[in-house]
Backbone:
């Protein structure tokens, strides 16, 4: 028997939480751009959110199995797009990340994320939960590794890194055993060390960025500057914050890109420990809610898709907030649902659309 | 339709999902802990850093005190000046703008690039000074390019404006940025790098008073250092204006009299030690130092063999030559030897084997004509009888070999040899023959022009010796005055009573020096109608060893001296003139005479309340007067226009006036409409270019 798909099955609490975060985001973007040339970006963000919501509803109507069926094609398109970026992309600040299509600027590497989530879910769902062979693991690596190599060529270290949790989540949930994970972990360490010392794959500025967070005072005007200013912003916020649009670090332009990558620092300065903790709780609720949906999903592929989304979101929150409070290097990874940026907003809402889709189909047949 | 695709048997293990949940919880807790550490534990520290980030103390520069002459005429002023800075912006690459900037500001492009390179490591908010004291054109360029070149900023400053052509430059000194070595000294403890301090002359000595106290403004800035607001303003306290003892008129006369000769002139009032004029040549332009002096000019200044930066009045230590004979006369007379000494000058004297020459054969000489003749033979014998100990005792008592204690930096003490001095420095006893050289101001004796002015002025004042100074002490705070005496120790004020008879003999002798007569050394400097006394001096520069090495050159010519007085007893003015390698001692005497006559003429003018003679030709003046009777009241050339007038009438007219006398009537007088007088006759400004500011604002 078939049930009619109904929006009653939509995850309304999740959507409400997401929209609350978006509201906070828009207000903070407004505050952070008040005295900069980015003034007015909050309205743009509202348009992006509206567009995201629309896309989310559309995606929630498409059966995710169809999406999984389409994934090989989408994967191919992604590779072509990434190659196109390298070939004809717009060069901004020394990196080719965008393709210009008419008035729109596309950053394909964001879309690749979604496709990869689906592709990895499809791959491991097809394996059917049996224990993985070395060959299976190698194939998974190739699946994720090819787009990673193309993105790191742009160069876009931050986005490249966001692909890794997709693979990690797939492997972990797809049935890797302890021995294999130890071997993989060792390989990863060796690989990272190799990349670090080879001096070719990472550019010097990337390396400097990755290390300066450990002691920003060593180079307070160089790469440590952003870290230091973010720490001052967050720290000076205190428990209750300086008040909306009153953060001296944010308003005085000391904090770098306070509406995008460093929006959490701006928010932490103006709303203090209380505000920051509230936002973290919202994120925690969203993630828990997503995991619950993964549990109730009708099949393995649905669960794996949702867990892929969870992995990406968790990774981005950890890295972005960690960067702002000095735990992590400055990598240019946006905070989902908070940072300004169309690609990031659209990705998150599309991912949520797929999640809703899975949730709505949990009782199907 | 999808049913076939769904396989409900394949599920994620709940254990793994729980592990993921705990993992996320752990991550959240870690992030919350990080936030706690920053926002709760570190809040105070970070709040402080945030304040330091955005609040900057911007100094409000205090205007430096002005300098006036003794008649309150402005000598050193400040002028507003604009400096250009380059402010680096994070998201703007200024390299492309540099050619345009260099063109607009008339800078060398490579030099500009080098300047920027030097500041590359400096914090981004720190503005880079690229040009000081920019012109109006350059300012207009910056204004016109505000949009294209937002990185250019201008800052208003006050700069020192000194008289031109090195006028009184050594006395005034100059200012410059405090050097790093200076900052380590205790006296510069309160100064910060970049502060402007006096580097020489009055600017240095009185820096503490002149500099005032900078105020400050607490400015709120953004990360580019741009001001976005301010709170808290501490006003600057302007520096104290100082009144110098110099008289611009006399200073100018002295500057003109010395011309471009390598030497020095100092004019002092020996009654109180006020320096009326101080000239040292060659000179320099202190304005070059007000804006940073360029390296080439500086190198030229410090390598010039004639030492332009040296204030020769207080720093040239040279053999005083025959001017020393005044001191010898005092010693000889006070000891009762000179009165009875009669000498027949046959061209020299040499009792110890070496024949010491006199430049003439003066014949019979005694103390009454020895000074006017400057007869070496007489003073050889006088010195021989006195012996070095007594000569040295008198010389030291009058201040030879000691600083005078003038309130200018870098004064030199000169040297007065004695038997003891020779023993200490040469480990050898004094030979009586050496006393003969000392007696005519040669040998090891060294003195500065200022010392000679103080000593000879003091002797002519009956032994009343004074501490020379260039700033009136009554305007100084008591603490500063006291510190000044400690900073500039010296012979200072002293009294050495000379017997009136002896005093008369010496002063008369000096008066004869400028009387035209045979053997009188400065007869050609005679001033008619002025009681003008003095003493010449010629000091050989080649010592016995050096003469062979230095072939015929100008630097072999003797240094010549003159110390002039007016009047001869209790003088109002003493002038010491030094001309290095000037050859003949009547040259400096004539220079001194010019200064003396300038002084006397001015005093006479003042006494008669007359305008200076240089008040140029005729001056047109208008006047209003009443005519009580048909005949004009005054005996002037004005004619009465209306003979029939029975009553008093208001009358106006214009006259040409020359030297206080009416020479002609310029315009026909009009009877009916009395016109307002067109103001007093043009006042002649004496100061070279700077008008006197009447009231100084504090």
Residues:
């Amino acid at each position: 028997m078939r049930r009619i798909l109904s929006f009653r099955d939509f995850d309304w609490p999740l959507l409400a939480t997401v929209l609350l975060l978006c509201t906070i985001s828009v207000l903070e973007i407004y505050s952070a751009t008040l005295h900069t040339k980015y003034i007015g970006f909050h309205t743009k963000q509202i348009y992006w959110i509206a567009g995201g919501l629309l896309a989310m509803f559309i995606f929630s109507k498409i059966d995710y199995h169809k999406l999984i069926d389409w994934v090989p094609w989408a994967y191919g398109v992604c590779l072509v797009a990434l190659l196109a970026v390298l070939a004809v992309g717009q060069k901004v600040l020394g990196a080719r990340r965008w393709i210009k299509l008419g008035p729109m600027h596309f950053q394909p590497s964001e879309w690749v994320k979604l496709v990869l989530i689906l592709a990895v879910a499809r791959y491991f769902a097809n394996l059917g939960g049996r224990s993985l062979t070395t060959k299976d693991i190698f194939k998974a690596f190739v699946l994720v590794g090819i787009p990673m190599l193309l993105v790191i060529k742009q160069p876009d270290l931050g986005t490249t890194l966001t692909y890794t949790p997709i693979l990690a989540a797939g492997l972990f949930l797809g049935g890797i055993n302890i021995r294999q994970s130890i071997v993989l972990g060792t390989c990863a360490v060796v690989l990272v060390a190799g990349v670090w010392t080879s001096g070719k794959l990472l550019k010097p500025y990337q390396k400097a960025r990755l290390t300066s967070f450990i002691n920003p005072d060593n180079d307070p005007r160089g790469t440590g500057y952003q870290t230091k200013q973010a720490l001052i912003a967050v720290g000076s916020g205190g428990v209750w914050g300086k008040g909306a649009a009153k953060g001296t670090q944010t308003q005085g332009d000391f904090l770098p890109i306070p509406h995008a990558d460093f929006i959490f620092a701006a928010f932490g300065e103006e709303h203090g420990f209380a505000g920051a903790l509230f936002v973290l709780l919202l994120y925690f609720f969203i993630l828990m809610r997503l995991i619950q949906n993964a549990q109730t999903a009708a099949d393995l592929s649905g669960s794996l898709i949702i867990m892929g989304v969870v992995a990406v979101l968790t990774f981005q929150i950890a890295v972005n907030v960690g960067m702002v409070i000095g735990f992590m290097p400055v990598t240019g990874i946006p905070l989902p649902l908070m940072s300004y940026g169309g690609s990031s907003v659209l990705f998150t809402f599309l991912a949520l659309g797929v999640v809703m889709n899975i949730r709505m189909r949990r009782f199907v047949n | 339709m999808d049913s076939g695709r769904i396989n409900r048997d394949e599920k994620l293990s709940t254990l793994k999902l729980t592990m993921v949940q705990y993992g996320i919880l752990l991550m959240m807790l870690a992030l919350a802990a990080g936030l706690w550490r920053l926002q709760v534990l570190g809040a105070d520290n970070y709040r402080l850093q945030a304040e330091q980030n955005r609040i900057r103390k911007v100094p409000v520069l205090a205007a430096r005190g002005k300098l006036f002459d003794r008649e309150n005429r402005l000598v050193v002023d400040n002028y507003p000046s604009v400096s250009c800075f380059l402010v680096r912006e994070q998201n703007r690459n200024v390299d492309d703008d540099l050619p345009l900037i260099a063109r607009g500001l008339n800078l060398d492009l490579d030099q500009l690039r080098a300047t920027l390179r030097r500041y590359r490591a400096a914090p981004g908010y720190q503005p880079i000074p690229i040009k000081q004291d920019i012109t109006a054109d350059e300012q207009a360029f910056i204004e016109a390019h505000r949009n294209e070149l937002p990185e250019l900023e201008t800052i208003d400053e006050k700069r020192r404006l000194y008289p031109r052509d090195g006028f009184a430059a050594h006395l005034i000194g100059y200012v410059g940025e405090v050097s790093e070595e200076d900052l380590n000294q205790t006296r510069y403890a309160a100064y910060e790098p970049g502060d402007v301090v006096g580097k020489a002359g009055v600017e240095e000595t009185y820096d503490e008073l002149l500099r005032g106290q900078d105020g400050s403004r607490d400015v709120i800035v953004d990360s580019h250092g741009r001001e976005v607001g301010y709170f808290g303003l501490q006003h600057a306290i302007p520096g104290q204006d100082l009144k110098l003892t110099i008289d611009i008129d006399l200073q100018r006369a002295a500057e003109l009299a010395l011309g471009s000769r390598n030497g020095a002139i100092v004019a002092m009032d020996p009654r109180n030690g006020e320096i009326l004029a101080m000239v040292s040549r060659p000179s320099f332009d202190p304005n070059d130092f007000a804006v940073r002096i360029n390296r080439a000019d500086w190198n030229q200044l410090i390598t010039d063999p004639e030492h332009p930066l040296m204030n020769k009045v207080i720093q040239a230590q040279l053999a005083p030559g025959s001017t020393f004979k005044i001191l010898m006369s005092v010693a000889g007379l006070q000891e009762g030897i000179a009165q009875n000494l009669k000498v027949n000058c046959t061209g020299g004297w040499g009792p110890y084997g070496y024949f010491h020459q006199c430049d003439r054969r003066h014949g019979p000489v005694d103390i009454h004509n020895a000074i006017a003749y400057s007869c070496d033979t007489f003073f050889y014998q006088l010195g021989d009888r006195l012996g070095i100990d007594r000569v040295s005792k008198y010389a030291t008592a009058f201040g030879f070999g000691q600083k005078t204690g003038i309130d200018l930096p870098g004064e030199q003490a000169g040297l007065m040899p004695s038997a003891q001095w020779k023993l200490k420095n040469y480990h050898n006893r004094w030979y009586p023959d050496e006393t003969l050289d000392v007696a005519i101001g040669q040998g090891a004796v060294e003195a500065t022009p200022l010392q000679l002015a103080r000593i000879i002025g003091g002797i002519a004042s009956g032994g009343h010796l004074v501490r020379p100074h260039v700033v009136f002490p009554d305007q100084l705070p008591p603490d500063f005055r006291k510190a000044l005496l400690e900073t500039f120790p010296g012979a200072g004020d002293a009294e050495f009573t000379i017997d009136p008879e002896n005093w008369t003999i010496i002063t008369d002798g000096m008066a004869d020096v400028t009387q035209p007569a045979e053997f009188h050394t400065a007869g050609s400097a005679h001033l008619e109608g002025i009681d003008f006394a003095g003493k010449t001096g010629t000091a050989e520069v080649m010592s016995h060893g050096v003469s062979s090495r230095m072939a015929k050159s100008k630097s072999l010519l003797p240094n010549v001296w003159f110390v002039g007085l007016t009047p001869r007893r209790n003088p109002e003015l003493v002038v010491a003139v030094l001309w290095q390698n000037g050859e003949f001692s009547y040259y400096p005497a004539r220079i001194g005479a010019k200064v003396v006559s300038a002084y006397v003429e001015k005093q006479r003018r003042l006494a008669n309340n007359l305008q200076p003679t240089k008040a140029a030709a005729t001056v047109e003046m208008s006047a209003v007067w009443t005519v009580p009777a048909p005949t004009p009241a005054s005996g002037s050339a004005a004619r009465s226009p209306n003979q029939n007038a029975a009553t008093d009438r208001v009358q106006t007219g214009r006259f040409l006036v020359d030297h206080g006398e009416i020479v002609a009537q310029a315009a026909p007088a009009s009877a009916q409409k009395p016109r307002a007088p067109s103001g007093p006759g043009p006042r002649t400004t004496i100061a070279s270019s700077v008008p006197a500011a009447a009231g100084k604002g504090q």
